[in-house]
């Protein structure tokens, strides 16, 4: 076995025996397209990064058990090779639990069907499946590790285990040690890291909006390990029905400078480039955009944040020898929440003046008084200001606008999606049950959709408004009676819903029915699988969709039987792709506009403007979208008016709004042709006449 060029001491990661300041950025290969990767690497290098970090997405590589896919967006090997070609190291976070706001936290959906499995605890069925995948993956990427001459310098197994560790107690500790032992047995030739909870044998790293306040505790627990910040959150992800999240460049720069000042020597931005959750790859409620207000935006372009941070990175690299030579900086108290950190001595010293207060504060240093803005760091050398986290240079500011391409769309047509009883007989495969059965049992997460149909009798004495109550149901339900849409799930929805028998898994709908027999049809729509136990207060194997409890009309339980039909007819006949040529499409007209369950086909010419393109889905309501046969993701033009999360108050800026959580959807250049077809499956009814193709302009 080759001697590894990667090690560490109490101060930093060592590469070929030299302490190295790691400035890293997370770029997830499936959330962009291969033609975007070289430019992402180039722009990361331009902004002063020396490392790229990525998770590995088991849920995408092995959608069907035993069938592996490393092609196209999943070509992890090529992604890492490109990083090396651009002079960038790689941190590979193998997981296989990765969280990442991805479907099922990175686990393939079929894993929940393994008999007697319990995930992320000392459970043999789970550990056997995990070990099989991890060993397969490691053998695949083995030439990419640093001891083989490759770019991978650090690797991570598991992820943020402290978030669930208390649930599993001693069995969880046994599992975590098993993970660490597995890592050692793999002989990766690079150090192992584990963030937010680590077993013996791995470097424990930190996550958060800020991590300077974790350094003292880290060194007390791990005096032999450097302070590495695995996830520096430069923004936050968005969820449908919640407002857009923003974090300022000034605050991100403060966090990084403050961490380095206090003795940190490795920072990884999560995310550096967020990208897009294509297809049905996002977790429950997560928007298709994973922009994260990251330094490189969803389309891979520079932002004010990347420019401002780039100046900080350049400075830190120029002083990296000084920063890494000092075992710890000299510290001085300048006020209740003000500190100075000094590296070096006399005229060569590098000084960090830090204000941790949410209000500005005057500080005195070297016979000079400085007024520090709230939450800011001023860096001095030879008595001169060389960087200020709260001051952005005018030339670094970037403004983004979306411009409508007015001549792009040439034709709009539609095709109706039939309800299950009107499907062709060859497609009808309903299950008949006396009680509703959870939909993943039948869909295996290969579709968002499942129909539940039964009879509903309304007696004469129940005439007037009534209430349909569904207990044990998820995620979104559209209620049809006798073929007419009566109601849909109310918003906003909650990301962490608590126990499966709790109030967030009960939905009520009020509407009026005439006395007599009616056909009740429920179209249950998944919004993605959970990413962790805490979202349902149970092991992830308990994840459920559709209807598994009961339905009551004015308190009376509907006795069934229930007919359960997974999917859509249009999905099975591929109306979004090759099957479209076999269907009858009608020109857009009043019949289909604002009516539920319609497929829309929008033809457009590729604009000649340079740069990224998006589609503005204003006028539509909820569904799935495909570009030239490839799914660009779920769309939902629901208002982002949920109350803001208080736990990241003063860090993440949000404003409840009637604007949609996401309005613009990425059309990857790699998927475009000269003449293009955008297909929308609209669940609730929309008007595609308002849809526009937009180019992006930066000033």
TrEMBL record:
One of its GO terms (biological process) is carbohydrate metabolic process. It catalyses: Hydrolysis of terminal non-reducing beta-D-galactose residues in beta-D-galactosides. The keyword Cytoplasm does not apply. It is an enzyme of class 3 (hydrolase). It comes from the Bacteria. Residues 598-675 form the Beta-galactosidase galactose-binding domain. Residues 13-314 form the Glycoside hydrolase 35 catalytic domain. Keywords: Glycosidase, Hydrolase, Signal. Gene3D superfamilies: Galactose-binding domain-like (2.60.120.260), Glycosidases (3.20.20.80). InterPro entries: BetaGal_gal-bd, Galactose-bd-like_sf, GH, Gly_Hdrlase_35_cat, Glyco_hydro_35_CS, Glycoside_Hdrlase_35. This is Beta-galactosidase. Pfam families: BetaGal_gal-bd, Glyco_hydro_35. Belongs to the glycosyl hydrolase 35 family. GO terms for molecular function: beta-galactosidase activity. Its EC number is 3.2.1.23.
């Amino acid at each position: 076995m080759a001697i590894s060029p990667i090690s560490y001491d109490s101060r930093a990661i060592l590469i070929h025996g030299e302490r190295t300041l790691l400035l890293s950025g997370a770029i997830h290969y499936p959330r962009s397209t291969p033609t975007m990767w070289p430019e992402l690497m180039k722009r990361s290098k331009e902004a002063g990064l020396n490392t790229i970090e990525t998770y590995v997405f088991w849920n995408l590589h092995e959608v069907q058990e035993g069938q592996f896919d490393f092609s196209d967006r999943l070509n992890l090997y090529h992604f890492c090779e490109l990083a090396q070609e651009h002079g960038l190291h790689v941190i590979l976070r193998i997981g296989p639990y990765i969280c990442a706001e991805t479907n099922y936290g990175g686990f393939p959906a079929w894993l929940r069907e393994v008999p007697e499995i319990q995930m992320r605890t000392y459970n043999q069925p789970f550990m056997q499946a995990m070990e099989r995948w991890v060993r397969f993956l490691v053998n695949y990427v083995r030439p990419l590790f640093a001891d083989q001459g490759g770019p991978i310098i650090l690797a991570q197994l598991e992820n943020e285990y402290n978030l669930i560790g208390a649930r599993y107690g001693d069995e969880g500790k046994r599992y975590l040690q098993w993970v660490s032992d597995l890592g050692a047995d793999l002989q990766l030739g690079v150090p192992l890291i584990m963030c937010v909870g680590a077993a013996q044998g791995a470097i424990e790293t930190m996550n958060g909006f800020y991590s300077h306040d974790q350094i003292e505790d880290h060194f007390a627990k791990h005096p032999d390990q450097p302070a590495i910040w695995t996830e520096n959150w430069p923004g936050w992800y968005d969820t449908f029905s919640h407002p857009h999240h923003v974090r300022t460049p000034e605050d991100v720069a403060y966090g990084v400078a403050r961490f380095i000042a206090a003795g940190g020597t490795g920072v990884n931005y999560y995310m550096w480039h967020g990208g897009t959750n294509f297809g049905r790859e996002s977790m429950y409620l997560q928007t298709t955009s994973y922009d994260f207000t990251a330094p490189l935006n969803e389309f891979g372009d520079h932002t004010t944040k990347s420019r401002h941070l780039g100046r900080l990175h350049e400075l830190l690299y120029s002083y990296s020898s000084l920063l890494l030579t000092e075992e710890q900086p000299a510290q001085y108290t300048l006020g209740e929440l003000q500190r100075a950190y000094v590296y070096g001595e006399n005229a060569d010293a590098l000084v960090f003046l830090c204000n941790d207060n949410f209000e500005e504060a005057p500080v005195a240093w070297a016979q000079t008084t400085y007024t520090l803005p709230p939450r800011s760091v001023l860096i001095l050398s030879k008595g001169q200001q060389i960087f200020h986290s709260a001051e952005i240079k005018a030339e670094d500011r970037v403004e983004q606008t979306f411009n409508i391409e007015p001549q792009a769309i040439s034709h709009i047509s539609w095709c109706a999606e039939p309800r299950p009883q009107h499907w062709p007989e060859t497609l009808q495969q309903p299950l008949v049950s006396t009680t509703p059965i959870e939909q993943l049992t039948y869909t295996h997460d290969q579709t968002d959709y499942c129909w539940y149909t039964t009879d509903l009798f309304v007696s004469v004495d129940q005439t007037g408004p009534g209430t349909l109550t569904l207990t044990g149901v998820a995620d979104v339900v559209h209620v049809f009676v006798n073929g007419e849409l009566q109601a849909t799930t109310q918003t906003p929805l909650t990301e962490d819903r608590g126990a499966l028998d709790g109030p967030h898994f009960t939905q009520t709908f009020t509407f009026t029915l005439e006395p007599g027999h009616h056909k009740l049809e429920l179209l249950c729509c998944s919004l993605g699988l959970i990413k962790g136990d805490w979202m349902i207060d149970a092991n992830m194997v308990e994840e459920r969709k559709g209807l598994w409890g009961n339905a009551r009309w004015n308190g009376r339980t509907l006795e069934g039987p229930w007919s359960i039909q997974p999917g859509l007819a249009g999905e099975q006949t591929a109306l979004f792709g090759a099957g479209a040529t076999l269907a009858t499409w009608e020109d857009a007209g009043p019949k289909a506009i604002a009516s539920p369950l319609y497929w829309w086909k929008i033809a457009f010419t590729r604009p000649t403007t340079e740069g990224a393109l998006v589609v503005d889905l204003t006028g539509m309501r909820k569904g799935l979208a495909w570009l030239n046969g490839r799914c660009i993701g779920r769309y939902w033009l629901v208002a982002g008016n949920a109350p803001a999360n208080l736990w990241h108050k003063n860090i993440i800026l949000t404003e409840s709004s009637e604007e949609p959580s996401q309005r613009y959807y990425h059309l990857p250049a790699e998927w475009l042709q000269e003449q293009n077809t955008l297909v929308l499956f609209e669940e609730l009814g929309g008007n595609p006449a308002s849809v526009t193709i937009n180019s992006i302009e930066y000033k």
